Amino acid sequence: MPDAQRPDIRLTGVSKSFGGPAGEIPAVAPLDLRLAGGSMTALVGPSGCGKSTLLRLIAGLERPSTGEIRIGEETPDDLRKRAALSVAFQDAALLPWRTVAGNVALGRSLARRPRDAGAVSELIELVGLSGFEGRRPAELSGGMRQRAAIARAMASAPELLLLDEPFGALDELTRDRLNAELPALWEAHGATSVLVTHSVAEAVRLADRILVLSPRPARIAADIAVDLPRPRDGVVLASEAFRETCGQVSAALRDGQAPGRLAAQ
C-alpha cells in the first residue's frame, strides 16, 4: 500500500534507445511518471515492448538516453551503493558455490545487515525450500533456484524491490502460494515495488496500480488503479470486482496494441 514515509519513484523525460548497425532502436519512449512510495506497481504489455528495459532503468542497470530517475531524493546508483535496492530477475543468478542458506544470507550481508539465521530460515520456509538449506544451486531444479533467488531479494528488506517475472519458472501451485504469501512480507517492510509480469490475474492480485505498456517503444497505454481489499484471498479472487479489473486490463492490452503473448492466468 502507498506510504508517504517511503521513497517514491520519479521519471522525468526518461527514454531509452539502443544503438545498432541500422541506427538507434527506441525501446522506451519519453516518460514522465511517479510511482507512490510503498506501493506495488505492475508493468504489463506485449512481449518485447520494453517492460524489462524500464525496470532496468529504474534499477540503474541501464542508463537513460534522456531524462532522469529519482527514488526519493536519490539516484538508483545511490540506493545500490547503500544496498537499499534489490532485484529478482527471471534468471536466478545464484552463486554456485554457496548453499541455499548461504545465497539467502548473502542478501543480508550485502545490505550490511547483521547475521540472522532465524530470518534466513523463515524466508527459506516461505518459499518452500525447507530441507534444502544445505543444497547448492546445481542440486536444485530451475523453479527451486528461482524461489531461492526471491528469498535472497527479500532478505535485505530493501526500500526498493524490483521483480522481473520472478514467478515465471515456478509450477502453478508454488506460484499461487507465493502470490498469496509474499505481499504480506513486502508490505511489512514497506518496500516501494515494481513487478514485470505476463499474467493479468497476477498483476491484479499483487498490484496497487497497473501500467499497461504499448508495443515498443514503450509508452503508457493505460494506467489502472486496483481498488481491491487486502489480503486478496480466495474470496477477493472469486469476486466480480476482481474479474472486472482483469477484464479492464485485458481490454487495455487489446485496444490499439500489436499482438503479443499475455496470459489470462
Any overview of this molecule?
It is globular and about 45 Å long. The longest helix has 18 residues. The two termini are 23 Å apart. The protein folds into two domains: 191 residues, Rossmann fold (3-Layer(aba) Sandwich); 64 residues, no CATH class. The chain is an alpha/beta fold and 265 residues long. A hairpin with a 6-residue loop joins β8 and β9.
Labels describing this entry:
2 domains, alpha/beta, 35% helix, 265 residues, 6-stranded mixed β-sheet, Rossmann fold, disordered C terminus, 3-stranded antiparallel β-sheet
How is the secondary structure organized here?
Layout lengths: L8 E10 L6 E11 L4 E5 L6 H9 L6 E6 L4 H6 L3 E4 L11 H11 L6 H10 L15 H14 L4 E5 L7 H18 L2 E5 L3 H7 L2 E5 L6 E6 L8 H4 L2 H15 L11
Parallel strand pairs: 3-7, 3-8, 5-6, 6-7
Antiparallel strand pairs: 1-2, 1-4, 8-9
Strand content: 15-25%
Head-to-tail CA distance between termini: 23 Å
Number of domains: 2
Strand order of the largest sheet: 5-6-7-3-8-9
Main sheet characteristics: 6 strands, mixed
Number of strands: 9
Quickly give the structural class: alpha/beta
Name the helicity range: 25-40%
Based on CA atoms alone, the radius of gyration comes out at: 18 Å
CATH topology annotation of the largest domain = Rossmann fold
CATH superfamily of the largest domain: P-loop containing nucleotide triphosphate hydrolases
Please tally the helical runs, counting DSSP H or I stretches of 4 or more residues.
9
Corresponding CATH architecture of the largest domain: 3-Layer(aba) Sandwich
- Overall shape: it is globular
Q: Could you give the order of the helices and strands?
A: EEEHEHEHHHEHEHEEHH
- What is the class of the largest domain in the CATH system? Alpha Beta
The pLDDT mean sits at 87
